[in-house]
Amino acid sequence: MRSRRTDWHTADIIAALRKKGTSLSAVSRQAGLSSTTLANALYRPWPKGEWLIAHALGVKPEEIWPSRYYDPQTNTLLDRKKLMRGTLYKSQALSSDESQYQPDSYLT
Predict the structure, then answer these.
(1) Quick one: CA torsion of 75, 7, 94, 92, rounded to 10 degrees?
(2) Domains in the chain, please, with CATH?
(3) Of the ranges 22-31, 71-80, 88-97, which is most confident?
(4) Are 4 and 67 in contact (CB under 8 A)?
(5) Can you give the residue ranges of the Ner winged helix-turn-helix DNA-binding domain (predicted)?
(6) DSSP state letters, 36-88
(7) 87 vs 22, higher pLDDT
(8) Angle subtended at Cα 27 by Cα 91 and Cα 53, rounded to the nearest 5 degrees
(9) CB-based contact 27:33 (threshold 8 Å)
(10) Are the beta carbons of 57 and 49 closer than 8 angstroms?
């Protein structure tokens, strides 16, 4: 029997950002985007936005949006980084035992 994974509710994502002392608009501005741009990742797939939000929370994007990162047939992790324009993060193997992503100087 497969365990069913559900995406975080948008209010939970926003609350988690507030607990970290930031907001969705602040993370968006820090990445050089409009203050409302990252809200797109809450409602539709957008790998770059998902990675920015996940990095701000200190978790992997697939923990927040498992429906976007796991193949529903095989339950295997999909590599969505190749869908991003440019490189936001150093290339790393996507394994389930990684606890943090390492940002490039782009985010620091």
Answers:
(1) 160
(2) 10-83 (1.10.260.40)
(3) 22-31
(4) no
(5) 7-81
(6) TTTHHHHHS--HHHHHHHHHHHTS-HHHH-HHHHB-TTT-PBP--GGGSSS-S
(7) 22
(8) 50
(9) no
(10) no
